[in-house]
Amino acid sequence: QVQLVESGGGLVQAGGSLRLSCAASGRTANNYAMGWFRQTPGKEREFVARIRRSVDITYYADSVKGRFTISRDNAKNTVYLQMNSLKPEDTAVYYCAAGLYSSREYDYDYWGQGTQVTVSS
Fold first, then answer.
1. Can you give the three-state secondary structure of 79-91, one letter per residue?
2. How far apart are the C-alpha atoms of 117 and 121, rounded to whole Å?
3. What span, in angstroms and rounded, lies between the C-alpha atoms of 75 and 62?
4. The Cα angle at residue 117 between residues 36 and 80, in degrees rounded to 5
């Protein structure tokens, strides 16, 4: 079992930055690729970024490429999402997930509870 806890969400003005953290616990937490997804009311959860298990190979959704950076610190069992140049359309609940290196929601076995990010215009 892997438990994931996100933190770092909040309210920020457009153009600002936030850094989300996802703390993983469980004996095999570092055995998984990690991903970030987001969801707004009435919409399906969408892929944001992913990172491989043991090497810094990453992939981003086109909507965040060049603005967001995913990273991981395996010694701390933590994954980060640095979000710069935030836009109102980035407003969502952000979830981290552990599973396969994939952009598909169903390839992830474990999910955090989510953290709200609100970007004001």
1. EEEEECCCCHHHC
2. 13
3. 30
4. 40
Produce one character per residue of 32-44: b if its CB has 16 or more CB atoms within 10 Å, e if not.
Answer: bbbbbbbeeeeee
Query: Would you give per-residue pLDDT tens digits along the chain (121 residues)?
Result: 899 999 999 999 999 999 999 999 986 767 899 999 999 999 999 999 999 988 889 999 999 999 999 999 988 999 999 999 999 999 999 999 999 999 999 999 999 999 999 999 9
Count of CB atoms within 10 A of residue 49's CB?
25
- For residue 113, the SS3 value is coil
